[in-house]
């Protein structure tokens, strides 16, 4: 096996491995989703429950006291949030993101079925099945601070324990009136007679929950282009960590700063304001056939307390994965609550290429400010990347042009050794060495583009500005998701029912780009199969890998292919004529030398 064949095989293996790694890391369903699917459970059938028995079961070891408050929900807004408070459980039933629209309306951050418990419900002790769903009284006031104002919503309700101990639960929400996405919640529990709080059990005083899901709404989580993941931030650490469920449950072993539930663009982040309050974090993951098909609850269990009064403070980020919004909680002067070093921006980090993703986003936003269309901005960014990579691709393109000029000599070698592949390979290898060209050099630019492709994918999946960004009305209406030209009434294996045009255009552009950069006559017969695989096999593989990719990603690579085709045609025309003249001159000198030898004889 000659040197060029070995290089071809190695490069092909690298490309295949890289493509597989990209699919497994970025395009495959999240591992936590797979494990949950295997352990999924069905919603219990309410018809099987004896409603008479269920209604007579006492849920808590205490009862409400005083008059029953109003059930009417009410709203509190700031510049970016519209929050609906529910007196039942002193909870939040809706959070709308005013600056991020879905179908022209503010996006709903809280995604739940009608029968699901609201976010921020309390549970007695470590119990997570029966929320304290009593109706609470509420008051509302505005607190003026030196750097802004806060709307404070206070819920309160008196209770009497089974042993006669009176106590009160207060939940006090604080909402900044500016453009912040963090709200705070203080939970205060006190007894009227100074006795120990008659709430909870030996493992926890109460449990605070968030769930069942971060919006916008979805019908399934089968594709990694729309996903929900849970991360944790451990105290003293600077990096987030993925969690792994066991039978649909994860319990944190360490004292955490916060846990986060992320969607493609939005994120919930919640944790205590002080260390040593929460005794345990827990996350659950269940899948159902109807309603919210993937349910993720996050629980924080407060340590047990033997005093007559406790007041605990929690912070919650409810908003977009936008670096400028997240990073303001690393500097206390940038937010009304004076939070610092929260490390919320880590939820956006995609790994070792985060730095490249940030650079691409910076240039993309510059181009968008020049021409306010993200599709055009992606094209301009692609042109810039191609210019930057030109020194690396120039040698490859010139090598391709030179191989075209060598076609007569290559054909001569093939005709000279028609039935001897080893001799063909040896003769061609000698020719390539003499001419200082590499027939597989066209693979190098493609391999160099892989880090850029991965970073571009992360950019399209995390850049909130691209959500709903239109390029061509009626075709590419959202660069962050696949474009669809029509939907079939049946599924096609590996593709589904939605037909996307961009993957098809991308595949043809890639095949044409590979063909024009690889001369079929430049390889020996033993290498032709490998060359055909690189020309046709790789584009087809990537067609299936990228079929449901964001349209912005396919737009980038398709434009890159078109530019490569255009530049290669130009180089073939310009340099090819020069190389052909050089070959003709070499051939003339060889013939002249042969004539001189015959004359001398």
Radius of gyration: 32 Å
Low-confidence stretches: 1-56
Strand content: 15-25%
CATH class membership of the largest domain: Mainly Beta
Task: Note the total helix count.
Answer: 12
- Mean pLDDT over the residues: 82
* CATH architecture descriptor text of the largest domain: Distorted Sandwich
Question: Pairing-aware structural class of the strands and helices?
Answer: alpha+beta
Beginning-to-end CA distance, first to last residue:
41 Å
Structure summary, number of beta strands: 21
Shape: elongated
Number of domains: 2
Major sheet description: 10 strands, antiparallel
For this structure, the CATH topology of the largest domain is Beta-galactosidase, Chain A, domain 5
Binned, the helix content reads: 25-40%
Short description:
The chain is an alpha+beta fold and 601 residues long.
Keywords:
5-stranded antiparallel β-sheet, Beta-galactosidase, Chain A, domain 5, 601 residues, 21 strands, alpha+beta, single chain
Provide an overview of this structure.
With about 600 residues, the chain is an alpha+beta fold. It has two domains: about 5-25 and about 355-595, no CATH class; about 40-350, Distorted Sandwich (Beta-galactosidase, Chain A, domain 5), CATH 2.70.98.90. Helix content is about 35%, strand content about 25%. The chain contains twelve helices and 21 strands. It has helices spanning about 5-25, 30-40, 50-55, 325, 355-370, 375-405, 405-415, 420-435, 445-460, 500-515, 525-545, 550-600; strands spanning about 60-65, 75, 80-85, 90-100, 105-110, 120-125, 135-145, 150-160, 165-175, 180-190, 205-210, 230-235, 240, 250, 255-260, 265-270, 280-285, 295-300, 310-320, 485-490, 495-500. The strands form four sheets. Strands 1, 7, 8, 9, 10, 12, 13, 15, 16 and 19 form a ten-stranded antiparallel β-sheet that branches. It has a five-stranded antiparallel β-sheet with strand order 6-11-18-17-14. It has a four-stranded antiparallel β-sheet with strand order 2-3-4-5, with no helix packed on it. The longest helix is centred in the last third of the chain and has 50 residues, at about 550-600. The radius of gyration is 32 Å and the shape is elongated.
